[in-house]
Design a protein that fits this description.
Order of helices and strands: HEEHHHEEHHH
Helix content: 40-55%
Largest sheet: 2 strands, antiparallel
Shape: extended
CATH architecture of the domain at 8-126: Alpha-Beta Complex
Number of strands: 4
Strand content: 15-25%
Oligomer: single chain
Strand order of the largest sheet: 1-2
Length: 171
């Protein structure tokens, strides 16, 4: 933390102290309870907010699109299982295994900015980064032929083009 090595409890304590000073991690929530009524709660987790943002930034750099999207879909179901007290449910255990597998390469360094209640990742790097500037460039390069994009766009958009023509003739 700040170029010093420390264990997870030190990281959490450091983040909680500094984030709380900046008003980070306060949430006012109206939620739907399991029994059907609404309740309101004000939660405060400054350290958790910082760790969540840092982890999210690392995942955006190290997970592929499909895995990231699927993990985001499952997160809602996972939260529901835990909220409803189904901690020992086989589905929760299976989701844990999926998440553990996705996290194998989620490691690196994240710079976080705390300011007036906001927590923002302003820099992230990882030895397992899937981003490579030399591959992601749109300038002339040898990775791929820029003219291939036109064929891809035409082919990828073909179902919508045909559907639009069909809908015009139908109505």
């Amino acid at each position: 933390m700040n170029r010093r090595r420390c264990g997870i409890s030190g990281v959490f304590h450091f983040n909680t102290t500094n984030a709380a000073r900046n008003g980070v991690g306060r949430t006012d929530v109206v939620e739907n309870r399991l029994v059907g009524m609404k309740s309101r709660g004000i939660y405060e987790t400054p350290g958790g907010t910082v760790l969540y943002e840092a982890h999210r930034a690392l995942e955006s750099l190290t997970l592929d699109r499909d895995t990231m999207h699927y993990k985001q879909m499952l997160a809602l179901r996972y939260a529901e299982l835990v909220y409803y007290g189904k901690w020992y449910h086989p589905l929760r255990e299976a989701l844990d295994a999926f998440v553990a597998n996705t996290q194998r390469n989620v490691t690196g360094t994240v710079r976080i900015k705390l300011y007036k209640g906001n927590c923002t990742a302003v820099g992230v790097k990882s030895p397992y980064s899937l981003y490579r500037e030399d591959i992601a460039t749109f300038s002339g390069d040898e990775v791929y032929n820029q003219f291939d994009a036109e064929g891809f766009i035409n082919l990828f958009g073909l179902p919508e083009k045909i559907g639009a023509k069909f809908r015009k003739t139908r109505f």
